[in-house]
Write a structure and sequence with these properties.
The chain is an alpha+beta fold. Helices cover 68% and strands 10% of the residues.
Length: 385
């Protein structure tokens, strides 16, 4: 309802001005002297309004066209003022208010000033030609020109307010837009990856692919970056790691862990000797992020074809494991920050409220002062921890 009223109100205002101008003209001199001018200005104003109403967002070309029609209306108003013989205010002076206000709406205060200047140029030029340019005539028209200019400036201010209301209240920052784009892309990639962003699931898929191509009784995926300890991410055929730690022992696993080069060999446990093969997992920069290990009985050692197949599988699944580990680290960091926030809120809010209630519930008469102080210290110590 408010939007409809804001669209109808300018038309009603212009119609009222034209009606007043026709009434003044009919009283001062004659109806036929002002009616043609009023109709011409009304038609030109409707044409300008029609130009502004079409096209998306009022394009620059249509605004310029509307301004041209409006300035023509100002010239017509100047002609009406020059042709009027009625006493001030003449009907043409009232009609001048319409194109000046429209010019301010279309192109701002400079357009309103241009409309007033063009109209007054016609008025004073015609008066100079007919020899009627007197001081009284000049001052009277200048006063109406100032009034019309003030109305044009109010039209420009109204247009500015309308543009501000049409703009969004809070534009999104580039950082927020980039974050939204990346998160949306991350969500799409999670649906395309096997296992999504779950690190154990990605490791299990790797072991499943290894078991399909390379016969082995026990296998595992160990992860760790740099000097970090080797952490088992997925196990198959075992419940815990039977091999020595790759970070300390000089073994096949230890050499693969340190050098990042796949290797096959043997290792001896307490009861038996077994064949073992290991291949590294790398991130996008080539850094080692873990290894995949397979072992079986020593009478069936791993040959070059087995080792190459293990290397190919490790390279094919390294990207999935890498992105899953990164996402797990981000999730752990977010959980840590959330725990810190909750701890701060509990320390600053709930704990202090408990201390305040405990202090309020104590009776200074029932307890000695030393006992009260010791109780307060105990409560505050518990609140801090």
């Amino acid at each position: 309802m408010q939007t409809k009223w804001s669209k109808v109100m300018p038309t009603l205002l212009r119609s009222a001005i034209i009606a007043v101008a026709i009434a003044v003209g009919s009283i001062g001199h004659g109806l036929l002297d002002v009616l043609p001018w009023a109709l011409v200005i009304l038609v030109l104003d409707l044409i300008a309004s029609n130009l502004l109403g079409f096209g998306p967002g009022q394009s620059t070309i249509r605004r310029n066209q509307a301004l041209g029609v409006t300035l023509l209306g100002a010239v017509v108003a100047g002609g009406a003022i020059a042709a009027s013989l009625a006493a001030s205010p003449s009907p043409g002076m009232l009609l001048l208010l319409i194109p000046v206000f429209r010019a301010g709406e279309v192109r701002g205060r400079w357009a309103a000033a241009a409309a007033v200047a063009m109209s007054m140029s016609v008025v004073f030029g015609a008066a100079q030609t007919h020899g009627t340019l007197t001081t009284a005539y000049l001052s009277s028209n200048l006063r109406w020109a100032i009034l019309a200019l003030a109305l044009g400036l109010s039209g420009a201010w109204t247009a500015t307010l309308k543009e501000r209301r049409s703009q969004p209240r809070a534009s999104a920052t580039p950082a927020a837009q980039e974050a939204a784009r990346l998160l949306r892309r991350l969500s799409d990639l999670a649906g395309a990856l096997d296992g999504g962003f779950d690190a154990p699931a990605a490791a299990e898929l790797l072991l499943h692919a290894v078991s399909d191509k390379i016969p082995g009784s026990r296998m595992a995926v160990l992860t760790g970056i740099g000097a970090e300890p080797a952490v088992p991410l997925a196990l198959r055929g075992i419940d815990r790691l039977p091999w020595p730690s790759p970070t300390t022992a000089d073994s096949v696993m230890g050499r693969v862990w340190r050098t990042g080069v796949a290797e096959a060999g043997f290792w001896t446990s307490v009861n038996e000797e077994r064949a073992i093969a290991a291949a590294p997992l790398h991130d996008s920069d080539g850094a080692r992020i873990g290894i995949v290990v397979v072992d079986r009985f020593a009478f069936a050692p791993f040959v070059d074809e087995d080792l190459q197949a293990l290397v190919d599988l490790a390279e094919g699944h390294s990207a999935n494991v890498d992105v899953a580990l990164i996402f797990a680290a981000l999730r752990q960091h977010a959980a840590f920050e959330e725990r810190e926030r909750l701890a701060r809120e509990m320390h600053d809010g709930i704990a202090q409220e408990l201390v305040a209630r405990a202090i309020a519930s104590m009776s200074p008469v029932a307890r000695p002062r030393s006992g009260l102080l010791s109780s307060l210290r105990c409560l505050w110590r518990h609140a801090r921890t």
